[in-house]
Amino acid sequence: MASPEIMERRTSITSLSSPPLLNYDVFLSHRAKDTGRGFAAHLQEALESQGIVVFRDEVEVDEEDGGKALAEKMKAVEESRSSIVVLSENYGNLVCMKEVEKIVMCMESMDQLVLPIFYKIDPANVRKQKGNFEKHFDEHEANPGIHIEQVRSWRYSMSQLGHLSGWHLQHSQVRDHIDL
Q1: Nearest in space to 82 (alpha carbons), one of 52, 42, 120
Q2: 3-state class of 29 per DSSP?
Q3: DSSP symbol at 168
Q4: Distance (Å, rounded) from C-alpha 26 to C-alpha 96?
Q5: Is residue 62's pLDDT more than 60?
Q6: Mean pLDDT over all residues of the chain?
Q7: Which end of the chain is more exposed for a tag (fewer CB within 10 A), N or C?
Q8: Does the keyword Zinc apply (predicted)?
Q9: How many whole angstroms from its chain centre is CA 108?
């Protein structure tokens, strides 16, 4: 359960005066460094071949100068019916944390469907923030530019995501293409 501070912050962030315009069927969240040219690109292609409208940022948004691009991504999350989150080894950077926080907020406040794909990682590491996720959170907590309540909100969001039913793809199961 989220702390009262996190719930208050989430309530104020997600208070919408009117329902958002839904421009996308799926917001595809991934770390381009791990899955951008392979798995995520093939997944997008497979979805679009079925007539599904997908938002996927094909360029890795830089953590320091993400401003406009990050704002566009946050708006796209709100304008999506669902989100697919491809969780991979390096999915713990600042931009990914902001994305997953927004996705979980939309899941909780707008009943957005969220489907996680655990790509070559153990789902328990997402739920419990172990392995590389522990390292990323330790780095975020040590960063003086990031407020501890922000990190707590990201931890909550990752835990929520880790508890969702999804797909767990091991190294031996990942193919170069996806068939729907």
Answers
A1: 52
A2: strand
A3: E
A4: 16
A5: no
A6: 83
A7: N
A8: no
A9: 14
What residues act catalytically? 99
C-alpha to C-alpha distance for 29 and 92, rounded to whole angstroms: 12
Average pLDDT over residues 41-63: 84
Closest CA to 103 of 13, 40, 167, 36: 13
Percent pLDDT > 90 in the chain is 52
Neighbouring C-alpha atoms within 13 Å toward the C-beta of 143 = 14
Mean pLDDT of 50-61: 82
Q: How far apart are CA 159 and CA 157, in angstroms?
A: 5
CA distance 67 to 147: 18
Cβ pair 79, 23 in contact under 8 A: yes
What one-character DSSP code corresponds to residue 16? -
Distance CA 37, CA 79 (A): 24
Q: Following DSSP, what letter does each residue of 91-130 receive, concatenated?
A: TTSHHHHHHHHHHHHHHHHH--EEEEEEESS-HHHHHHT-
**C-beta of residue 8 within 8 angstroms of C-beta of residue 35:** no
Question: For residue 112, how many C-alpha atoms fall within 13 Å in the half-sphere facing its CB?
Answer: 32
